[in-house]
Amino acid sequence: MSLLDKLSDPLVWERFCEYKTSLAAPKAAAKELRAFIDEKAYLPVCETIRSGDVFPLPKKSVISKLGSDKKRTVYTYPYAENMTLKLLTYLLLRKYDGLFSGGLYSFRPGRTAKDAVRRLIRTTRPGMYHYKVDIHDYFNSVPVEAFLPKLCAATEDDPALYAFLSSLLREPRVTDKGAVITERKGIMAGTPLASFYANLYLCDLDRHFEDAGVPYARYSDDIIVFDDDSESVARHAEYIKAYLQERGLTVNPKKESFGAPEDGFTFLGFICRGGVVDIAPATVTKLKQKMRRKTRALQRWRKRSDSDPERAAASFIRVFNRKLLDDPQDNELTWSCWFFSVINTTKSLHEIDVYAQECIRYLISDSRGKSRFRVKYGDMKALGYKNLVHEYYEYEKNAAEKQSGSNIKDGSENEII
After folding, report:
1. How many CA atoms lie within 13 A of 296 on its CB side?
2. Beta bridge partners of 179
3. Any residues with CB less than 8 A from the CB of 364 and at least 6 apart, and which?
């Protein structure tokens, strides 16, 4: 039975829906998925796949990278096809998870950024050096013809699955602003299947360091490796760069760095030094830059429209509450989802809180002088402002209560057994 046959199984869709719901998906997205399943809107897509009919072309979009002015190219399929490919990716990542080594943490069931950071803290020793690197435009740079043999070998037990996946990868056409164009698009960032492909293409690199017993971690295109001396780390760096070059990839020189023991290490937006885990300074800076840009834009809008200052401030608060604390958007985690379960200090959260409050005070008072302090903390709370430090401690409290309840439940079950 091919994995493709499971795409038309209502029970499989129900399990997928339970999984998505467990991730605290946005209510609107969860409702849309529920309707999609109830209407069995996936069946026409399954029939297209089964019959070998032409699959819709992906749509190309150029969007701003999260937290910066940089642009990235992503691809998307129509909703029904995209949702069906999400289920297929869910099944792929579980069926073939055994292909991946322990140092890989991206898009894997039961593995998170928290696990990566904690494992690195546990497996590294005081005095170790490290090398960290980011692969330049990884998803869209993977040479398809070089990747297909690896995909074929991984799915040799399912020829129908390989035939379908390879047909999507070999399709050179995309739609761009309504026109059909031909371009090199790699494994197509933004499409659901790209996560499985990104894990698979470099799995031999992950295995190399695991077999050597070298502390190492990869999260998609982010790689970090450790050793006892700088010479060994330099050799690891050369090995990684040569491996990537042989596979048609290049490193991002702006995100390539060597670190000494006293530096601690930065990975996946975290900085770990002396047992303290915090949000990395560069990540905090990017967020503050985004807040500054939003503040300026709202101030310009307020003056053009002669709107109330409180309205501009409330808009600022809504934007960053959603980004930092509220329900995650599709394919994007809020800061609370990503950071709260890992950090063990509120230093950076306090820095962000102070900056956000400065932005709000400026929007209301139109002043960066002492008069801005006429805007009290209670005024900001009345507009919906949420303090990150407070929310973090609430998260910690709820997590502790949940863990306590889980321990009680486990003990009761053991008594019954």
Report:
1. 5
2. 176
3. 309, 310, 312, 313, 372, 375, 379
